[in-house]
């Protein structure tokens, strides 16, 4: 059974391994970036476990703007108690556990937490091939992002919360 919980520093090695199995070296979060996120935003950094093994992750800071900016990938500060926009900088699932609903469960968990904290939206950037996945989960494509992270074309995706 899938269990979703807040991240712990001890998860770091497996998080880095999952991230690098899902993203190119240029796109993937660094060990240092993960350390900062675990330290500053454990309240919006969740891992999925299957039989005690970490199999997926979702994370991102709460930001003031509606869209992600590239500085967020290295510059993280603690989340405000309420309000703002919940960003998703990373959603990654171990290749062995993909196509099993893990990503959807992580998205739903983050959305519940964001709603409980009165966030305005959930905002993320994705590659073109993932637009349909996020649209199925209620996100609206806002067009090409200004992000040049990893040298890739990213699309702004937004989901309004109640």
Distance between the amino and carboxyl termini: 29 Å
SSE arrangement, N to C = EHHEEEEEHEHEE
In CATH, the homologous superfamily goes by the name Gcn5-related N-acetyltransferase (GNAT)
**Low-confidence blocks of residues:** none
Strand content: 25-35%
Count every beta strand, where a strand is a DSSP E run of 2 or more residues: 9
Strand order of the largest sheet: 4-5-7-9-8
User: Percent of residues in helical segments?
Assistant: 25-40%
Q: Please, what is the average pLDDT?
A: 94
What's the CATH topology label?
Aminopeptidase
Briefly note the structural class of the backbone: alpha+beta
Rg, nearest Å: 14 Å
Individual helix count: 4
Largest sheet: 5 strands, mixed
What sort of overall outline do the alpha carbons produce when their principal axes are compared? globular
CATH architecture: 3-Layer(aba) Sandwich
- In the residues, how many domains can be counted? 1
The top-level CATH class is Alpha Beta
């Amino acid at each position: 059974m899938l269990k979703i919980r807040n991240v712990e520093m001890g998860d770091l090695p497996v998080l880095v391994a999952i991230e690098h199995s899902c993203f190119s070296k240029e796109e993937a979060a660094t060990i240092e970036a993960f350390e900062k996120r675990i330290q500053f935003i454990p309240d919006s950094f969740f891992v999925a476990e299957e039989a005690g093994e970490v199999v997926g992750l979702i994370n991102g800071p709460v930001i003031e703007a509606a869209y992600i900016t590239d500085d967020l990938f290295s510059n993280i500060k603690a989340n405000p108690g309420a309000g703002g926009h919940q960003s998703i900088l990373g959603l990654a699932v171990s290749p062995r556990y993909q196509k099993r609903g893990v990503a959807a469960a992580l998205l739903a968990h983050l959305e519940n937490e964001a709603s409980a904290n009165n966030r305005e939206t959930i905002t993320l950037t994705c590659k073109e091939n993932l637009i349909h996945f996020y649209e199925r989960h209620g996100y609206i494509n806002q067009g090409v992002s200004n992000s040049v992270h990893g040298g890739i074309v990213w699309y702004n995706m937004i989901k309004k919360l109640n």
